[in-house]
Amino acid sequence: MTRAAVQPIEAEALVRCFDEIRAVDGIDIVVDKGEIFGFLGPNGAGKSTAVRVLTTLLKPTSGTARVAGYDVESQADKVREVIGVALQDAAIDPLMTGKELLRLQATLHGIPRRLAARRAKDLLERVGLTEAAPRLVGQYSGGMRRRLDLALALMNEPDVLFLDEPTTGLDPMSRRNLWEEVRRLNREYGTTVFLTTQYLEEADQLANRIAIIDHGKIVREGDPAALKKSVGSPTLRVDVADEQQAIAEQTLQAFGEERPSRVGRVSIGLEGGAERMADVVRALDEAGIVIEHMELDSPSLDDVFADATGRRLEGAADAEEPAE
């Protein structure tokens, strides 16, 4: 196989266990060149463990994985040469400046000093940190640190960029700024991006294709539009008093299949969509149900997750992945 023909990321029957726990449970992944691939799932689903295997930080228990054509276990050094990694829990020395950290990253990659200086200048401009570069990183905001993470990951001009939960803890404005930088990076440089996230909007906005992972297994895969279309009817959500939930569920059964929801809310796939709303309101009124809130939403990735797993991604339990 020629270097030009290899896939940026390939995994076959990939498993990673921690004692009796199968954190990654036999997943298959193929990521195309120049793609932004979203790996979507709740905390504890296995996203970060999979990234650590693909970036050679953990060895697979079984199965195979290749990045840029190199085996992550037998050719780990080669993999590290061609990837950039921004991990969720990456440690950045708060007593170093942004410029010093970029210089250190260049040294670790064996990049000559003059070339490293040019790349550092360019990267700082791209992530909007030129003025902040001489300051100690301990003085950076959360959004600035994330942008510095991205610059550090790009210092070696990687073929494949891994972003593990890149916007966790950021405010909405910082999150969107980082999204735009990832889009620009992919658009202008053709960088392949493997993005893990628990945010539905982030996966929907950024990814060309998504794999949804739950309990270590991939439960759905495809482009966001096709995945949402596969769910079918829009979701009707009706909030009622707890004591009226049972009768509300019974009443709404006539209008569509029940979908997973929280206590105090009844959700169904409303067959016929908005045209049936008047009939729904009439039926609930006749049943003596007091509607506290009602909304009709087009199919979302949360609906896809619920259809695949029987529960909602929004509000899913925040389990921790096993310690490594």
Task: Provide structural commentary.
- The protein has 324 residues and is α/β, with parallel strands linked by helices.
- The protein is 35% helix and 24% strand.
- It has eleven helices and 14 strands.
- The protein has helices at 47-54, 76-82, 98-108, 113-126, 142-154, 172-189, 200-206, 224-231, 245-252, 277-286, 301-309, and strands at 9-18, 21-31, 36-40, 62-67, 70-71, 83-86, 160-164, 192-197, 209-214, 217-222, 235-239, 258-259, 265-269, 293-297.
- It has a six-stranded mixed β-sheet, sandwiched between helices. Strands 2-1-4-5 form a four-stranded antiparallel β-sheet, covered by helices on one side. It has a four-stranded antiparallel β-sheet with strand order 12-13-11-14.
- Strand 7 (160-164), helix 6 (172-189) and strand 8 (192-197) form a beta-alpha-beta unit.
- Helix 3 (98-108) crosses helix 4 (113-126), helix 4 packs across helix 5 (142-154) and helix 8 (224-231) crosses helix 11.
**Biggest β-sheet: count, sense, barrel?**
6 strands, mixed
Percent helix, as a range, is 25-40%
Number of strands: 14
Mean pLDDT: 90
CA-CA gap between termini = 34 Å
| Element-level helix/strand string | EEEHEEHEHHHEHEHEEHEHEEHEH
| Beta-strand percentage range | 15-25%
Rg, please?
23 Å
Structural class, from secondary structure content?
alpha/beta
Please list the strands of the largest sheet in the order they lie side by side: 6-7-8-3-9-10
Which blocks of ≥5 consecutive residues have pLDDT under 50? none
Shape: elongated
Work out the helix count: 11
